[in-house]
Amino acid sequence: MAQLGTVYNLFFRRNYAMLATVFTTAFAWEMLYDNTMNKVWDNINKGRQWKDIRQKYIQGADDE
Amino acid sequence: MFARSGLRSTQRVFAGARNGAINVTKRAASTSSGAEASPVRLNIAAAASTAVAIGSIAWYYHLYGPTAHAMTPAEEGLHATKYPWVHQQWFKTFDHQALRRGFQVYREVCAACHSLQRVPYRAFVGTILTVDEAKAMAEENEYDTEPNDQGEIEKRPGKLSDYLPAPYKNDEAARFANNGALPPDLSLMVKARHGGCDYIFSLLTGYPDEPPAGAQVGAGLNFNPYFPGTGIAMARVLYDDLVDYEDGTRASTSQMAKDVTEFLNWAAEPEMDDRKRTGLKVLVVTSILFAATVWVKRYKWAYLKSRKIAYAPPKDANVQHRQ
Q1: pTM passes above 0.90
Q2: Quick check: ipTM above 0.95?
């Protein structure tokens, strides 16, 4: 409980701290979630997307 | 005598149909007299009303029952077979290697007659072609410039922002070159036809070697059961090994039809990959939120659901009776 009290005092007690906490966690969560889901997506669609086959054609262009 | 009485009884039945109320009393009186209380009239009445009921149902069904088809099955065209397109699954993107092959088929085969006017070269960058390839391809075509200081419109090589050029100058030229039939623009064709991908694939691969016996094929038309009306101006174009795929895939008829269909689906819905990825994210988040909502509801309602209301009647001694 003592730790919870510290968390409360640090992040939620004052309004500006609360606001900062909300914004920061929102950004952090968004980035984390997007990255995770994009990884899941790329895993579901392995070998189907342009970034998976791009390498073949980029190399061909470099030779010219 | 019997015939007369029988005749009279039928007359009574029809009279009874006209005004039943009076007839009921009449019938009651006559029934009590006993002589003409035959069940024959009742049977006739029952038969007549049944006939009327069946007749009205039949008439109603005749009017509203059967589905009205504006066209015959031949005019509707054969329904396309449902194929298990991988790119149409919920969480699958286009197979971009197939898109690249399909674009090659479009360029080498379809583009001779069909335009793809709503697709710019920039759309290919990062999905089907590299930047250099797309630029090179755009530069092969000439486009009108803005008017210069003398008001002359000159020609310039294409840029990434230009749209794919049409094979004909306008629809009239296209009709003239194709025996009066206009090859439709293929940009949105997958969205524009019933059956979408299935229809286009079936159409491309569905040309029989020769029209079936008894089929009417107009002059300059070809028989295709999947085309509404079965007479299509486009002849079969995809034959095995027509195209030389750069990635070594064998170019069978169905392979080319599948690739070009997937490519046309991409042309109609270039946003599909991103849309489905966002959809996945939305579905995951909302299912988590939904589960949380259900949990909170059960938590809040737990004491209401599990409580027991008991009635303890007041003891006699505590009850205050009125004096």
Answers
A1: no
A2: no
